[in-house]
Amino acid sequence: MSKKTFGPQPLLFPMPAVLVGVTIEGKANFMTAAWCGITAYKPPSLMIGIHKERYTLQGIKPNGAFSVNVASVEQVKMVDYCGIYSGTKKDKSRVFKIFHGTLKEAPLIEECPVNLECQVKHIVDMESHIVVLGKIMETHVSESCLAEGKADTKKIDPLIFSFPDGQYWRMGEPIGRAFQLGKEK
Ligand SMILES: Cc1cc2nc3c(=O)[nH]c(=O)nc-3n(C[C@H](O)[C@H](O)[C@H](O)COP(=O)(O)O)c2cc1C
């Protein structure tokens, strides 16, 4: 088998394209993040890799709270907007309709089908980025994205990002059930 090496690269497929919500000086701010992933089930937790220069960090550290809003394909232009412009230059508090859950400093986006309210548990310095580990305190799912009472992936139509081509994607078709197909091998 022939392989080419590229040195250390952050090459994982796919990445989500979520919107991280914080409150800075009383105002909501949203940042696009692809470096976001689940870290534990008990308690349900996740991580985000945030570059040290991001304005968003100014909301995470003092409040100890943030939101992760799962965008759908429909919101791609707004997601890209929040990934191009910093809250230091543009007021991103008016881009979306905002609501609040239990964590008052974690603004949630009405248009996004899934909203996770997170409490900061750990902050880890990884040189270029700060890794924020958050405990998921509450989960909101749009009623229109439920099927048989559960979050429905197809209806959510989550926005996906890939590196190094820098493209947004939509999910394809399901190909089989996990923890099942392996039994047929
Ligand atoms: C698709 C996409 C994914 C991004 N992922 C991240 C990320 O995971 N971490 C990060 O620090 N910045 C990421 N960025 C860049 C920030 O979203 C961007 O710098 C934004 O303006 C920061 O907003 P703020 O300064 O208001 O916090 C991403 C941008 C795009 C377009």
SSE layout and pairing:
Layout: E1 15-16, E2 18-24, E3 27-33, E4 36-41, E5 44-51, H1 57-63, E6 65-70, H2 76-84, E7 98-99, E8 108-109, E9 114-126, E10 129-141, E11 146-147, E12 150-151, H3 153-156, E13 159-162, E14 167-170
Antiparallel strand pairs: 1-13, 2-3, 2-6, 4-5, 5-10, 6-9, 7-8, 9-10, 11-12, 13-14
The structure holds flavin mononucleotide.
Residues 17, 29, 31-35, 49-51, 54-56, 80, 83, 85-88, 161 line the site of flavin mononucleotide.
Explain what the structure shows:
It contains 3 helices and 14 strands. The chain is mainly beta. The chain has one domain: Electron Transport, Fmn-binding Protein, Chain A (Pnp Oxidase, Chain A), CATH 2.30.110.10. The two termini are 24 Å apart. The model has no long low-confidence stretch (mean pLDDT 97). It binds flavin mononucleotide.
Number of strand elements: 14
What order do the helices and strands follow?
A: EEEEEHEHEEEEEEHEE
Report the radius of gyration as a whole number of Å.
17 Å
Name of the CATH superfamily: Electron Transport, Fmn-binding Protein, Chain A
Q: How many individual domains? A: 1
CATH architecture name: Roll
**Biggest sheet layout:** 7 strands, antiparallel
* SS summary, helix count: 3
- What structural class do helix, strand and pairing data support? mainly beta
Features:
three-stranded antiparallel β-sheet, seven-stranded antiparallel β-sheet, Pnp Oxidase, Chain A, 14 strands, binds flavin mononucleotide, mainly beta, 3 helices, globular, single chain, about 40% strand, about 180 residues, about 10% helix
